[in-house]
Design a protein that fits this description.
By secondary structure, the chain is an alpha/beta fold. Among the domains are: 3-231, ANL, N-terminal domain (Rossmann fold, 3-Layer(aba) Sandwich); 419-515, GMP Synthetase, Chain A, domain 3 (2-Layer Sandwich), CATH 3.30.300.30. It has 16 helices and 25 strands. The strands form 5 sheets. Strands 2-1-11-10-12-13-14-15-16-20-19-18-17 form a 13-stranded mixed beta sheet, with helices on both faces. It is globular, with a radius of gyration of 24 Å. The relative contact order is 0.08. The mean pLDDT is 92.
């Protein structure tokens, strides 16, 4: 099955159900399918054929989803671009992808015009949301094109998306994602459409991120209605869930924190929420504890994955979010909730290796490796990075450190490149961060390694305090007395906020540059 079948199946079962709700408008599955056919025919009229790359630079919108499926129907390759990226980075991605067509929101036209002289592969530009001088207009293309269905021979192992990872150092890497990768995850974890039961998803994660794409495809295959947000704003999210009676949401921890901490939280009816999936960054215990208390109708799922794995490869399910049982059972569940990413999904294998490539026993910390049909085969046009990313026998190195317990649960211990080595002793930053985070005045903390002439490295804590709270360096270091002496931070820097990427991950590289 390829991804276009997701839409075909859902449209056949629930044609009159809304597929998308966006800025006061809605489109049924049948209406969206016709617009997608028209757009695919319009693309074909512009010379787009199987294997051609189409770039898109815009916030979440109905046109984003239509463009993906129109490209997929032609066997073309969709290239979603980070709208927060700078011009030189965007230019690099488009040139590296050799994009033949570029769609954009009107706000990006000036930047695109400056880039075009350096993008010889781009033959046509389409403005999505309004008419722009010198550009084709999206709605004109749709109205002028044929609504006839488009058929292309598509192999399940054909590439459907070329997604660029958000690089913290160097250039972004292109990750080719196949139809079969999404098919493996979606059909294995999402129920097909029910002609009677209706569900609504709120889609807030950006569609240039693999988590956003995964959420979108799950909604389409499941026959769910998507309530789209251009970008996440906490008040808008609360209002949209309230108004549309949304049942499912995907959030990054920062988003969830803003939601449950919002002063007007109680003014909104969020009782329709049944499933909240979170991931992409560590979830502080106090945040998930508060969310579970304030949203009793919702089941919570912690999903872990990355672009190279076509998103989720492990998950911590709803039962693991219920802290009940004996004291021993509650302690075990609490540890899972604060540190575990759950168990691998059925189509994924996971193992832990040491620095020499040896598979480790349970509870031994090493690098997490993954293998399965959804794993990318290699980076786009980058043999060197591909060789670095895989073991000789084909396992993907995730770059995350962790261990597996006796019941098969996987626990994170930080990024492989975050490891701090003091006097020959390995220190997991996450272990130290968890202790600092438990200080009553601390909002969040990050621990980095800094050079030390005697020990090689020492721990430095970068700390954000809660509003109106106070603490000193001595307070923070003293709070770490439960840790072995060599693990305790030797210095503390207090900041107002931590730098993050587009999905809420803290940019430790920037912290090391500034405070290391």
């Amino acid at each position: 099955m390829n991804t276009t079948d997701f839409l075909t199946i859902a449209t056949a079962i629930c044609p009159d159900r809304p597929l998308m709700i966006y800025q006061g408008q809605q489109w049924t599955f049948d209406q969206a399918a016709e617009r997608i056919n028209r757009l695919a025919n319009a693309f074909a009229g512009l010379g787009i054929t199987k294997g051609d790359r189409l770039g898109i630079l815009q916030v979440n919108c109905n046109q984003y989803i239509e463009t993906y499926f129109a490209a997929a129907k032609l066997g073309a390759i969709f290239v979603p671009l980070n709208f927060r990226a700078k011009a030189d980075e965007l230019s690099y991605m488009l040139d590296n992808a050799e994009a033949k067509l570029l769609l954009m929101g009107s706000r990006y036209v000036g930047m695109v015009d400056d880039m075009l002289p350096n993008l010889p592969s781009v033959e046509n530009c389409i403005c999505i949301d309004e008419k722009c001088d010198g550009k084709l207009f999206y709605e004109d293309l749709i109205s002028d094109a044929s609504p006839e269905d488009v058929f292309t021979e598509i192999d399940d192992d054909d590439m459907t998306i070329l997604m660029y990872t958000a690089g913290t150092t160097g250039r972004p890497k292109g990750v080719p994602l196949k139809h079969s990768g999404f098919d493996s995850y979606i059909t294995g974890n999402v129920d097909p459409p029910d002609p009677i039961t209706e569900e609504k998803n709120i889609l807030t994660v950006p569609l240039y991120h693999v988590a956003g794409i995964q959420a979108m495809m799950a909604a389409v295959y499941g026959g769910r209605t998507m309530a789209l947000m251009s970008q996440f704003k906490v008040e808008d999210w609360l209002q949209l869930v309230n108004d549309e009676k949304v049942n499912r949401a995907m959030l990054v921890p920062t988003m969830l924190k803003w939601i449950v901490d919002h002063p007007d939280f109680d003014k909104y009816d969020l009782s329709s929420l049944k499933v909240i999936t979170y991931g992409a960054a560590p979830m502080p215990y106090e945040v998930i504890k508060k969310a579970i208390e304030l949203l009793p109708t919702a089941r919570f799922i912690n999903a872990f994955g990355q672009t190279e794995t076509a998103s989720t490869i492990t998950f911590l399910g709803p039962d693991d979010h219920i802290i009940e049982g004996t004291e021993e059972e509650k302690e075990k569940k609490l540890k899972r909730l604060t540190s575990s990413i759950g168990k691998p999904l059925p189509d994924v294998e996971v193992k832990i290796i040491d620095s020499e490539g040896k598979t480790l026993e349970n509870y031994d910390v090493g690098e997490i490796l993954a293998k399965g049909p959804r794993i990318m085969s290699g980076y786009w046009k980058n043999e060197a990075k591909t060789a670095e990313a895989f073991t000789e026998d084909g396992w993907l190195k995730t770059g995350d450190k962790g261990y597996i317990d006796d019941e098969g649960y996987i626990y994170l211990a930080g990024r492989a490149d975050d490891l701090i080595i003091r006097g020959g002793e390995n220190i997991s930053p996450k272990e130290v961060e968890d202790v600092i985070d438990s200080h009553p005045s601390v909002e969040e903390a990050v621990v980095i390694g800094i050079s030390d002439p005697e020990w090689g490295q020492e721990c430095r804590a970068i700390v954000v305090l809660k509003e109106s709270e106070k603490a000193t360096e001595v307070d923070i270091i003293g709070h770490c007395s439960s840790l072995a002496g060599f693990k305790r931070p030797k210095s503390v820097v207090f900041v107002d906020e931590l730098p993050r990427n587009q999905v809420g991950k803290v940019l430790k590289v920037k912290l090391r540059e500034q405070y290391g």
